[in-house]
Amino acid sequence: MTSSDMVVRNDVIEIFYAGQPTHWTNWPAENRGDWPTSAGSVYPSQTGLATLPLDGFVGLETVDGEMPGSVTTVPIQPSDAPVALAISWAAAMVERSWVDVNVIGMTGESISGWPTARVVSDGPHARPIWGENLILPLDQQFRLRFIIHGKARLFGFSFIPASHPQ
C-alpha cells in the first residue's frame, strides 16, 4: 500500500509504502486469531521507502549502444524571457557515451552562431553551452536535435531561466 503522494527531494522520487508478509483478510472468522473484534491486521506490518531517479521513467537510447542516433523536436517558439536548456540523461562514459545538442532552423540547417554542444556530464540538470551562447534564440523559431552516442540515455529536456543574457 503506497501513500497518496510521491515526494520529490534532491532529484529523487520517494514513494513511502506499508506492507505485510502475506495476504490477510478478516474473513472468514478463523483468520481473526485471538482478536475476535479486530478490524485490522494480525500480521506484522512494516513500512518502507522506494526511490526512483527523477526523469528516469522513459528514455531514448540507440538500438545497439554503438552507432549514434538522433531525435529532433517539433518547432519551438522563442521565449519572451531569456532561457537556457537543461537536459536529463544518464550513462556518461568518457569518450564513449555522451549527448550532442544542435540548435537548428525549420529546414534542418544549423542556425548561425550555434555550433554543436557536447554534454559529457550526466544527471537531471546537465547544461549544454554553445560557446558564448548561454541562452536559446529569442528572435526565431527553432528545433533541438539531440545526438545520442554510445550507451547514453536521454530522459528529457526543460527550459530554465537564463543566468544572464546573450
Describe this structure as you would to a colleague.
With 166 residues, the chain is mainly β. It folds into two domains: 7-53, no CATH class; 69-161, Jelly Rolls. Helices cover 0% and strands 37% of the residues. The chain contains no helices and ten strands. The protein has strands spanning 7-9, 12-19, 46-53, 69-72, 83-90, 98-104, 117-119, 123-126, 143-149, 153-161. The strands form three sheets. Strands 4-9-6-7 form a four-stranded antiparallel beta sheet, with no helix packed on it. Strands 1-2-3 form a three-stranded antiparallel beta sheet, with no helix packed on it. Strand 1 and strand 2 form a beta hairpin. It is elongated, with a radius of gyration of 24 Å. The protein starts with 6 loop residues before the first strand and ends in a 5-residue tail after the last strand.
Q: Main attributes?
A:
single chain, 166 residues, mainly beta, Jelly Rolls, 2 domains, four-stranded antiparallel sheet, three-stranded antiparallel sheet, 37% strand
Question: Topology of this protein?
Answer:
Blueprint: E1 7-9, E2 12-19, E3 46-53, E4 69-72, E5 83-90, E6 98-104, E7 117-119, E8 123-126, E9 143-149, E10 153-161
The total of helices stands at 0
Order of helices and strands: EEEEEEEEEE
Helical content band: under 10%
**Strands ordered across the widest β-sheet:** 4-9-6-7
CATH topology of the largest domain: Jelly Rolls
Please indicate the count of domains. 2
Strand content: 35-45%
CATH architecture of the largest domain: Sandwich
Biggest pleated sheet: 4 strands, antiparallel
The Cα radius of gyration reads 24 Å
Overall mean pLDDT stands at: 83
Quaternary structure state of the chains depicted: single chain
Total number of beta strands: 10
CATH class of the largest domain: Mainly Beta
Distance between the termini: 50 Å
